[in-house]
């Protein structure tokens, strides 16, 4: 088993810029930690993919992150958390956290009539409904798949007039059910909060699982004795697609233009493994 040290990075991954909501929470709650962020922008969105594709993508990302020496992985992607977390969690030596269980726990603490907006794949899996009802079988849960939200965020079309109409179409069924709580079942969706607030009554509680998965990560790192106490390294940003486009898209969420590397997952993992094998052969 690989030894994990406190100074190693936390790996955070998503299909694109959505996971930056989790990254911002890490900056707020765990400012001393070093981060490796990966956006699988060549294959975004994940919400219309098959479970088999999602599991394959997640394994490729985790294999690469393992080769980069991370101490923990956070799936800042609800679709990956819903379809792959339970399958891959036992395959790696470092802890892997998903956003669904922390989000479900937070929702049950504040609501009885809970709406969940998610990608089609996450909604179809009923992962949130299952998790929420396992915690409290007496609450009511409604889930809505929202395939247009991720492209809107990735293309930075949040403030366009059509976006409000799209949001009304997805949220109206939940409003009609009388929800008192809305869960962001995709890490892209907090970016749309200004739009949602124009539609929803102010008393509806908005639950962002990003806040709660980082709190769970803090507890896990503390339990394992691997909280970093030194100054953090600069965040390393990597993508599988257009690195310049990701950098420009990130400005709105990070307040700066990050340096972004383009990574070929299969080639990077293969090259790293070959180097390790060659090095081992010398000893």
UniProtKB/TrEMBL annotation:
Homology family: Belongs to the aspartate/glutamate racemases family.
The record's listing under PROSITE patterns reads: ASP_GLU_RACEMASE_1, ASP_GLU_RACEMASE_2
Q: Locate the active site.
A: 77, 186
List GO molecular-function terms, semicolon-separated. Answer: glutamate racemase activity
Q: Which domain of life is it from?
A: Bacteria
* Enzyme Commission number(s): 5.1.1.3
Q: Which Gene3D superfamilies match?
A: 3.40.50.1860
Substrates-to-products reaction catalysed: L-glutamate = D-glutamate
**TM segments?**
none
Cited HAMAP family = Glu_racemase
Q: In which pathway does it act?
A: Cell wall biogenesis; peptidoglycan biosynthesis
Can you name this protein?
A: Glutamate racemase
Q: What class of enzyme is it?
A: isomerase
Where are the coiled-coil regions? none
Q: What positions does the entry give for substrate binding?
A: 14-15, 46-47, 78-79, 187-188
Q: To which species is this protein native? A: Merismopedia glauca CCAP 1448/3
A Gene Ontology BP annotation from the UniProt entry: regulation of cell shape
Output the lineage of the source organism.
Answer: Bacteria, Bacillati, Cyanobacteriota, Cyanophyceae, Synechococcales
Briefly state the protein's biological role: Provides the (R)-glutamate required for cell wall biosynthesis.
Q: Which keywords are on file for this protein?
A: Cell shape, Cell wall biogenesis/degradation, Isomerase, Peptidoglycan synthesis
């Amino acid at each position: 088993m690989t030894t994990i040290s406190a100074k190693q990075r936390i790996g955070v991954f998503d299909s694109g810029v959505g996971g930056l909501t989790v990254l911002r929470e890490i900056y707020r709650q765990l400012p001393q930690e070093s981060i490796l962020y990966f956006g699988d922008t060549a294959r975004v969105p994940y919400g219309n993919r098959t479970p088999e594709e999602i599991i394959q993508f997640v394994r490729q990302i985790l294999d690469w992150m393992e080769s980069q020496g991370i101490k923990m992985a956070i799936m800042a992607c609800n679709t990956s958390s819903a379809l792959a977390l339970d399958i891959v969690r036992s395959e790696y030596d470092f802890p892997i956290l998903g956003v669904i269980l922390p989000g479900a726990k937070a929702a049950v603490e504040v609501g009885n009539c809970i709406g969940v907006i998610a990608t089609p794949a996450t909604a179809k899996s009923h992962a949130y409904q299952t998790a929420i009802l396992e915690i409290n079988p007496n609450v009511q849960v409604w889930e809505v798949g929202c395939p247009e939200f991720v492209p809107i965020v990735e293309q930075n079309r949040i403030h366009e007039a059509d976006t409000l109409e799209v949001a009304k179409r997805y949220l109206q069924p939940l409003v009609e059910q009388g929800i008192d709580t809305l869960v962001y079942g995709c890490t892209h969706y907090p970016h749309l909060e200004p739009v949602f607030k124009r539609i929803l009554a102010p008393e509806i509680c908005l639950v962002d699982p990003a806040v709660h998965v980082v709190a769970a990560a803090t507890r896990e790192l503390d339990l394992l004795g691997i909280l970093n106490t030194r100054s953090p390294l600069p965040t390393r940003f990597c993508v599988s697609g257009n690195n310049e486009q990701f950098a420009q898209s990130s400005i709105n969420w990070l307040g700066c233009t990050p340096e972004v590397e383009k990574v070929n997952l299969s080639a990077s993992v293969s090259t790293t493994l070959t180097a390790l094998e060659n090095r081992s052969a010398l000893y």
